[in-house]
Structures are given as structure tokens and as C-alpha cells.
Amino acid sequence: MTSLLLELDDVVVEYPAKGRGKEPFRVLHGVSLSVAPGETLGLVGESGSGKTTLGRAVLGLAPVTGGEIRFEGRPVSGLGRRERRALSKDIQVVFQDPYTSLNPALTVMDILTEPLLVTGVARAEAERRVQKLLGHVHLPQDAARRLPREFSGGQRQRIAIARALCRDPRLIVCDEPVSALDLTTQARVLDLFVEIQEATGVAYLFVTHDLSVVRHISHRVAVLYRGDIVETGDAAQVTEHPEHAYTKRLLLAAPVSDPERQAQRRAERLKAAAS
Ligand SMILES: Nc1ncnc2c1ncn2[C@@H]1O[C@H](COP(=O)(O)OP(=O)(O)OP(=O)(O)O)[C@@H](O)[C@H]1O
Ligand SMILES: [Mg+2]
């Protein structure tokens, strides 16, 4: 028996070759990591390193050709349709773009009741739960009657978070969920993620390219570099005293608000480039 929620064991993801005689395109080269119940694992790495692919593999949406993904100790690859549906209650997702991830033709009430209705919850009960959920993500009660386009980006992301929460998941895969928001809104939405975790014990696999975001929210951090995990550890440890050269470069590239630190970093970056 394991106390881990999610385990990736030497996971390989390959996309089929485009054209005959070509090699398949290997995006993840044997990735191992784990997430405990109630924990946030921040997954960082530059663009194209395979972060989204890793999240999609966990959701069963990417072609896993090697290794194993386990949820609560059970392999998730090769599940039948019924088991997969059961799992889709426990693992939810919040995407980056709050402008395309919500169906524009549906009211917020319809968007949020739909996942409940398809699992047999009665409409009155579903609507009652949705009203409560809107309160949890700090949206006004009258939000239920409105369409997604009548909300700001930050509010839409709250709707997406409410949708992910409505079936009481154990794990939410968050793929750059605050990257499209301005800094103040980012901070508020990140606080909401933390607050929800404290209230519900949900775990997050939190994908981001932004180290300040990852520092804010994660318990542990895994650094992905060209399809390999090059470093994992305690969030403060990895973001303040990185071991791996790639993590150090990533840190140097991250903007800082303190001008003095910034000047120092520019100097360090120059030195790193020269060596
Ligand atoms: N469906 C697909 N078919 C073929 N190749 C793909 C597919 N999806 C992703 N890739 C490739 O896999 C690699 C990793 O992509 P991925 O989207 O996981 O990166 P990422 O780390 O999320 O980047 P970003 O920070 O830009 O979102 C890229 O080289 C991409 O072109
Ligand atoms: Mg991505």
C-alpha cells in the first residue's frame, strides 16, 4: 500500500513519426515523480520541455509508450472506458487560457452543473452545489446566470477552477493557470488555489514556466529539461539553491522585482554567458 496519490515511474511519451521510415518523436524520456495527497508539486521548465505533455499523460491524453503512471497505487494506463470515467472524477484540469477553455454559449450555471448532471446528480441539488461553489471561488451569486464573455480573465479562471472542483477531485493538473493574467490577478488566483487546498486537501500538479509562481504555491518542485527531470526537491531549496546548471540558468532568466538584485543577476548572467 502506498501513501502517494500520483506516481510516474520512468514514463516515456512518444508521438508517432510523421512520414515513413522516420523515428517517433520522443517528448518525455523516462520521467519519474510523485505527488502526495494534499501536496503541490510545481513542474517548471522552459517552453517545449514537455510540461504540458506530462500533464496530458496524467490525464490519459498523451501516448505513453513506456513506464507506468499510477493513481492511488493503481496503473492508469490501459484502463477500460468505465474505469477511466471513474478516474476522471478524481483528476481534473485547469488550463492556461481562460478565454477558450469555457464554452461561450453556456451560462456559468450550465457549465458548472453539467459535470454533476451527467453523473446522475439531480438538477436542484446540482444548482445548490454550484451556488455554494461560486462562493468558494469568490464569484458573486448572480454570476450563475451570465455567459463567460461577461467576465474578466481572472474571473473566468475562477469559473474554470470552480468547474475543476465541482466533483471533489483528489488531484488537479494546473497547466499555466495564471500565465494569461496580470500580476495582481495572478496573486489573487494563486491565493485561491492555496485556500482551496487548505479547505479540501486537493493535490496539485502545477505546471508553470514562472519560478516566482512556483515558489508561491509549491511544496516541492520538479525541473524538466528537454523531457528529463533534472532536479526535484523542496520548493525553497530548489528555487534558492539550485543544484543543476539548468535550474540555475532558469533562475537567472526569471525577472525579479528588486532592482539591486536585478543588477546583480544581470552581472551573473553575463559572467555565466562568458564562461
Ligand atoms: N500532439 C503532438 N504531436 C507531436 N508533437 C507534439 C505534440 N504535442 C507536443 N508535441 C511536442 O512535444 C514537445 C513538448 O511540448 P509541450 O507542449 O509538452 O511543451 P511545454 O513544456 O508545455 O511548453 P510551453 O511552456 O511552451 O507550453 C514540443 O517539442 C512539441 O512540439
Ligand atoms: Mg505547455
Rg computed from alpha carbons, rounded to a whole number of angstroms: 20 Å
Q: From the structure provided, what is the oligomeric state, counting identical versus distinct chains?
A: single chain
Mean pLDDT metric: 89
Small-molecule components bound:
adenosine-5'-triphosphate, magnesium ion
Category from helices, strands and their pairing: alpha/beta
Q: Element order, helices and strands?
A: EEEHEEHEHHHEHEHEEHHH
What's this model, at a glance?
The chain has 275 residues and is α/β, with parallel strands linked by helices. The chain is built from ten helices and ten strands.
Identify the notable features of this structure and list them briefly.
4-stranded antiparallel sheet, 23% strand, 10 helices, transport, binds adenosine-5'-triphosphate, single chain, alpha/beta, 6-stranded mixed sheet, 275 residues, binds magnesium ion, Rossmann fold, globular
